[in-house]
Structure formats: structure tokens, C-alpha cells
Amino acid sequence: MSDAEPPERPRRAFRAPGRVNLIGDHTDYNDGFVLPVAIDLHCIVDAYPTTDGVIRLRSEADPEPVELPADGAVDPRNVSPRWGRYVAGVVTSLAERGRPAVGIDGFVSSTVPPGAGLSSSAALEVAVALALAAAADFELSPLELALACQHAEHIATGVPCGIMDQLASVAGAAGSALLIDCRSFAVRPIPLPAELALVVVHSGIERALVDSAYAERRQECERVARELGLDALRDASFDQVAHEPRARHVVSENARVLEAVAALEARDFERVGQIMRVSHASLRDDFEVSLPELDALASALDEAGALGARLTGAGFGGCVVALAERRSASAVADTAAEKYHAETGATPTVYICQAMGGAGCLAPASSP
Known about the structure:
Blueprint: E1 12-23, E2 33-50, E3 54-59, E4 62-69, H1 83-96, E5 103-110, H2 120-135, H3 142-157, H4 164-171, E6 176-181, E7 187-191, E8 196-202, H5 214-227, H6 238-241, H7 245-265, H8 269-285, H9 292-303, E9 308-311, E10 319-325, H10 329-344, E11 349-353, E12 360-361
Parallel strand pairs: 3-5
Antiparallel strand pairs: 1-2, 1-12, 2-5, 2-6, 3-4, 6-7, 8-10, 8-11, 9-10
């Protein structure tokens, strides 16, 4: 800990969940619809304010600490270690919004696996932002907080991510998925029936958006929208994009999100599963963000008895999400994992996830 610790230590811990996206991928940056779930994997920042204007954070996952000026004057892209770039992005983003340059000293822990497509970076950003805002008595609305963290990721990594990850972490609802309109930022909880389980399986293939074709896909979507004279592909009809595979995925995926919501509300779980399988095929064939391992894992889950399975997040590695009957979820996951490992040689990791509430302050924490 630093020598700048005040006599009274108002130490607090802030939790921000990761998320799994049930359906609606690569629609958020096209002003579309998404259906994520805040899950019971989370990042925690345990910190107290200091008086020297310095941000000091240590992580259980990396022996190298992060030390930054609290005024956001450092270019996040030049920060080392790499996880500190997200911290620096948040510091800069909040400073631009008027946060006083109050330092913190703290510790970061996380159960969200990195490179899995479960929003480990967004969980870190949101937890850090909450700790920084509290230390400086700086108030932001939940939406403003999510937007600040989205901007932080942009300036930290150069990846032009949409709002879904950060907003899902901030606005999560226990027992529910979130229907998010990424144009208006309206959020509506969609209850998940108790008899269904979220089965999330990490393919064992880590994803790195900085090194992927994520930005290229976004540029392709924006090009088609410009050629059609539209603000975003949210406004395109299927006929307008029928011969443009990237745009065709976005338009059809938006429709699938709304159809999946209607099917969940009608308790037509078989239909939800069918929609998830079609979504995976669209991500694989039209948007080309799947991998053979993700295809094999989705198929293994379907064959093991899941209602439906699809890659989740941006693709290029990471996780597959499936819906299964709760009573058989563990057996489905274990059978699929065994089959997948036999076919690919990759080692999967299974998570049976719960839908959790959004980010916030935990009870007072003890020193790590």
C-alpha cells in the first residue's frame, strides 16, 4: 500500500459482473438489439482514496502493479502492464467528464476468464469506474457510467466496441436477460424461466479483439449503411441487404433478438433454441467470425441435448452459450465437453451461470 493512505480508511469494494450474450452479436454497433445476461462471474476492485493524486492498483492475476496520475494525463495505449491500459482508459474517460483527480490505492480480482468473450475488460472498466467515482464523490448516472467505460475501451485498445458489454454489466437484473436497444439505450429485463439454465463453455481458444477482424467487420457494416443512405444497418430492410452477407447477418440478427424475446415470454423454449442455432449459422457463414472449434462445440452441445447453442460475443474464439433444461444442464455440458475435447484436442471449461444484478458497492472489505 502507498504512504498516501489517510488516517481514516474508507475502504470499499466494487463488483461488476461479466456477461454472456444470449443472442444479438455484432448488432450493438449497428444501433440494433441485443439480449445479454449479467452473470455470476465478476471483477472486484477493493480500494480506498488517497491524497497524492495517484492511482495505484495491484492485481491477483499479474505481479506488475499499475501506477497512474489521477488526472488522466497518460495515453492509455502506452501503459504497462497491458491490463493497466483499461484502467488508464477509465481514468482518462472520467477525467474528461469532470472527475476530480483523487487517487486510489487498491486491489483487483476477477473470476471472469480473459479472452473468453464474457466481457472481462468491461467488468474491469466498470468496477474501476465505480471505485474512482466513489473516491472522488463524483456522480454519474448508470448510462453515463456505461458510456464512459465504452469510451475507455476505445481509447485503451483502439477496438470500436459497442455499448452492450458495459451497459449489461451496469444494468444487469437478477434472474433476467436484458433486451437493450443500442440506439436509444433503453433496457428491459426479460425474465429467464427458473427451469432453464445458461450453459457457457469456453472453447479453450482465447479471443483477442485487438488482433481479430472486429474493426474490419464494423467498417464493412458502416460502408453498406452509407451506400444505402442510412444512419445504421438498424434501419435497413432484409431486401436491401439480401446480397451483402455482413449486413444480411445484422438485419436478420436484429429480427432474431426480438423473436427470441417473444418466444421466451411465450415460454416457447424449443423456438428459442432454434433461433440460437440459426444465429450461430449466420455468424459462421455470413459474418464469418466463427472458428472450427466453436462450430464443433456448438454442435456437441446441440447433440448432447441443449435446446440450442451458439457462439457468444464477437467470435474469433472464446465461448459458446447454450440453453438447457436445468435438471439436465450439467449432464449436457459434461457430455458436450467430452465430445468436443475428443474431436478437437482443445480443453473446454464449463460454467453453469446465473443471471445476476448489475454492478455496485459491496459491504466494507478487509485488506487483501
